[in-house]
Structures are given as structure tokens and as C-alpha cells.
Write a structure and sequence with these properties.
Shape: globular
Strand order of the largest sheet: 1-4
Distance between the termini: 12 Å
Number of strands: 4
Largest sheet: 2 strands, parallel
Mean pLDDT: 84
Low-confidence stretches: none
Order of helices and strands: EHEEHHHHHHE
Helix content: over 70%
Number of helices: 7
Strand content: 5-15%
């Protein structure tokens, strides 16, 4: 663990705040837009049926892996807890907005607003339960492989931790949504397979981004392999 001082410490704090802002924004937005589903058929070889809520979600796992690698496990866990708090807070805002009666001249009437955000409360609670578990699993597995490999093979710990945690997250959310009646059970397996496969592809594509981020941090703060920084 490297203790930073002076301008290096201030810079590390600012970067952490930016990463935290991106993480929280991605998490909250994914919970708000999840009800729209789309299909993606790359090169005509497989048709994905996915919630648009999945689009910003992989960003959160990339950020937690980067924070885990550079700032350590505790700061990564702090990030997850901050995201959960932001999601709960957004629920309160949505609840107040939903019960506030719309005036006749309002462009969005109560029935439309409720249709769009009505399932958000249950969805966010379901997502938070699954997400909290999956993210902590991701961080634990990441640091387990970091110890085993002595800081080498970044690609291995990044992908193994993300693959497993993304499967846990996808399965947990779909189970809760199907059990609550938001999705029909006949959609469970297709959405699980497509959602997990999509996340695996994204995880493979974001590995170079993680390498680039770690390289920049190591050059910026003069870190050795597997060395972390302390900003407390």
C-alpha cells in the first residue's frame, strides 16, 4: 500500500470521485430504464433480447475492478455501498414524484408516469439485492485471484470475477422479477442466456480498457505491480 502526499493525494482523490460519480450514475440509470427491452443481432449469428438497463451496467463492474486494483478492496466496497445508497435515495424521489398529482396541462399525466416508473420500486429493490451480492462476490473473487497470481495476470482475475458475478446478478434479478410477476417465467431462460452471454462479451471487450486504466494509474502514481494506493 503506497501512501500518497501533496498533489498526488489530491489528484487520486479527484479521480476516485470521478469514478464514483460514473459508477453511481450508471447504477441509478440502469434501474430507471430497465423496462424497455430491445434486440441485437450482431452479424446475423445470434439474436440477443436484452433490457436497456444492461447497457450501463457493465461499466459498474469495470470501475469496481479498476478501483479494486488501484485503491484496494475497502475503497471498492465503499463504492458499492454508495451506489446502493444512491439507488435507495432515487427511490424516495420517484415515490414522491409518483404520488404528486399532475395538473391537466402537464405533458406527462399520472397514468403514464406510473406506467413508466410504477415497477421501479420493486425492480430497484430486486436489483439492489442481487447487485449488492454480485458486486461483493466480484470484489472478493478479484482479490482472491490477485493474491494467488501475486498481482500478475490481470486479465484472469478481471474476467473470472466478472463472469461469475455477472451470472449471479443476472440470475438473481430475473428470479426476483419473474417471481414478482413483472416478467413471465417462459422468458427466464432466454433472458438469462442472452443477458449472461452479452455480459461475457462486454467483459472480454472491457479487458483492454482495464489494462489501459491500470497502466495510466501506475505511470501517474509510480506504482509497482500489484501495489495499491491509500487515500485515507
Amino acid at each position: 500500500m503506497k501512501q500518497l502526499i501533496g498533489k498526488d493525494l489530491r489528484l487520486a482523490h479527484r479521480i476516485y470521485l470521478v469514478l464514483a460519480a460514473l459508477f453511481i450514475c450508471s447504477l441509478v440509470v440502469s434501474n430507471l430504464i430497465f423496462q424497455k427491452f430491445f434486440y441485437w443481432n450482431p452479424f446475423g449469428w445470434f439474436r440477443f433480447e436484452l433490457s436497456v438497463g444492461l447497457l450501463p451496467y457493465p461499466i459498474t463492474f469495470l470501475i469496481t475492478d479498476l478501483v479494486s486494483e488501484i485503491y484496494g478492496r475497502r475503497k471498492a466496497n465503499d463504492l458499492v455501498l454508495a451506489g446502493i445508497f444512491a439507488s435507495v435515495f432515487s427511490l424516495g424521489i420517484i415515490y414522491v414524484a409518483d404520488i404528486a398529482p399532475a395538473i391537466p396541462e402537464s405533458a406527462i399525466q399520472d397514468d403514464v408516469f406510473t406506467k413508466v416508473f410504477g415497477a421501479t420500486t420493486l425492480a430497484v429493490i430486486s436489483s439492489m439485492m442481487a447487485y449488492l451480492f454480485a458486486q461483493f462476490v466480484d470484489i472478493q473473487i478479484y482479490h482472491f485471484w490477485k493474491r494467488v497470481t501475486k498481482g500478475k495476470m490481470l486479465w484472469l482475475r478481471n474476467n473470472l470475477s466478472t463472469f461469475f458475478s455477472q451470472f449471479v446478478d443476472t440470475m438473481s434479478v430475473l428470479l426476483l422479477l419473474c417471481y414478482a410477476g413483472i416478467l413471465s417465467w417462459d422468458k427466464f431462460w432466454p433472458l438469462l442466456g442472452a443477458g449472461f452471454f452479452f455480459k461475457v462479451l462486454v467483459a472480454l471487450f472491457d479487458t483492454p480498457l482495464l489494462y489501459a486504466g491500470v497502466y495510466i494509474f501506475r505511470r501517474l502514481f509510480r506504482l509497482e505491480q500489484a501495489q495499491e494506493i491509500q487515500i485515507d
